[in-house]
Design brief:
307 residues, Phosphorylase Kinase, domain 1, Transferase(Phosphotransferase), domain 1, 2 domains, 6-stranded antiparallel sheet, two-stranded parallel ribbon, 9 helices, globular, binds adenosine-5'-diphosphate, binds magnesium ion
């Protein structure tokens, strides 16, 4: 609950461990650790020929609430339906560990993806994210803990949300959030789950992954009473890459969107349409070079044969 801190003294299951579910009898062989957050560790596992991701929670209560959220989510008809495939307990070295099994998503973290492919992909990733959020919101949920660590990017910027530990039914209190992405942290609104809560985090997320000077991290040290959304608006103003999307992000930061559907429509119209066009491929350049060369040659010829 609340701000996440990554500390756990729970043992990690080594590669080769056979995780056998106590109640459903599912058998999963651990291949490697995929990642770790404040609430648990996630392993790449195999069941027969199939790969899955298996999350083992540190706190049984928080883990159960995440499982419940995922169950509720899969009932709301959406692309998240087949996400969780099993949930059970595993006895290991005399102790029970709750776990759940989900679809394994192959890909990269957002920061790695942008470093490798170029930061202007952020506009397309933004579109995918807004689509996902709109879908969750239509099902009555708010994602809650939107941040770079909670998504995986694959292929051509396809974006999948992972970590539904913050998933909250609309109108309830946000269950799990992370400092700078949380509008409460910025004195910019309540921690009640509404669509605008996710849109605020969405805007901070985009600022964060394009924040070259790491200004956002510096804000953690500011006294709570001095944190305000103006600082974020200023960062947005100085951000050239996000300029085409700035009006949308500004509205999101100021809580001026009632819903994500409108934000998505605006994103389509602005961020993607007005993306700075990359320089023309070399072919156009070559024609100019050839033209200049021919002019020079012409000049030289004229000079040489001038009487
Ligand atoms: N379904 C998945 N497929 C691939 N990797 C995953 C999956 N779920 C989680 N991970 C990896 O494990 C990390 C921690 O998982 P996460 O659910 O975010 O834990 P926490 O709730 O503790 O933050 C993620 O940042 C990601 O790298
Ligand atoms: Mg996480």
């Amino acid at each position: 609950m609340g701000y996440g801190v990554t500390t756990s003294f729970e043992p990690a299951f080594p590669a080769g461990t056979l995780i056998q579910g106590k109640w459903n009898n599912g058998q999963y062989r651990v291949e490697r650790l995929l990642g770790e957050g404040a609430n648990g560790r996630v392993y790449l596992v195999r069941k027969g020929k199939q790969h899955y991701a298996l999350k083992s929670g540190f706190d049984p209560h928080d883990h159960q609430s995440e499982v419940n959220a995922l169950k509720a989510l899969s009932r709301s008809s959406s692309s998240f339906q087949q996400f969780m495939v099993d949930s059970d307990d595993f006895a290991y070295e005399g102790k029970d560990y709750p776990f759940y099994v989900m679809r394994y998503i192959r890909g990269k973290s957002l920061t790695d993806f942008l470093t490798e492919n170029g930061r202007d992909w952020v506009h397309l990733v933004g579109l995918h994210l807004l689509r996902k959020l709109t879908e969750l919101h239509a099902g009555g949920f708010v994602f809650g803990d939107l941040k770079a660590e909670n998504m995986i990017i694959s292929g051509y910027g396809d974006t999948e949300l992972i970590d539904f530990g913050g998933l909250t039914a609309k109108g309830r209190s946000i269950k799990q959030f992370t400092e700078v992405y949380d509008r409460g942290f910025w004195n910019a609104g309540t921690r009640t789950a509404d669509e605008a809560y996710d849109l605020f985090s969405f805007a901070v997320l985009l600022l964060s992954v394009t924040d070259r000077q790491r200004r956002l991290q510096g804000f953690k040290a500011i006294l709570p009473q001095n944190r305000n959304v103006e600082a974020l608006i200023e960062m947005l103003r100085d951000n050239e890459l996000l300029a085409p999307a700035a009006p949308v992000l500004r509205k999101a930061l100021l809580g001026q969107y009632a819903g994500s559907r409108q934000a998505l429509a605006d994103w389509r119209a602005r961020s993607l349409a007005k993306r700075p066009v990359r320089k023309k491929p070399v072919s156009g350049g070559w024609i100019k070079v050839c033209f200049a060369a021919s002019l020079l040659l012409f000049g030289a010829t004229v000079y040489m044969f001038w009487p």
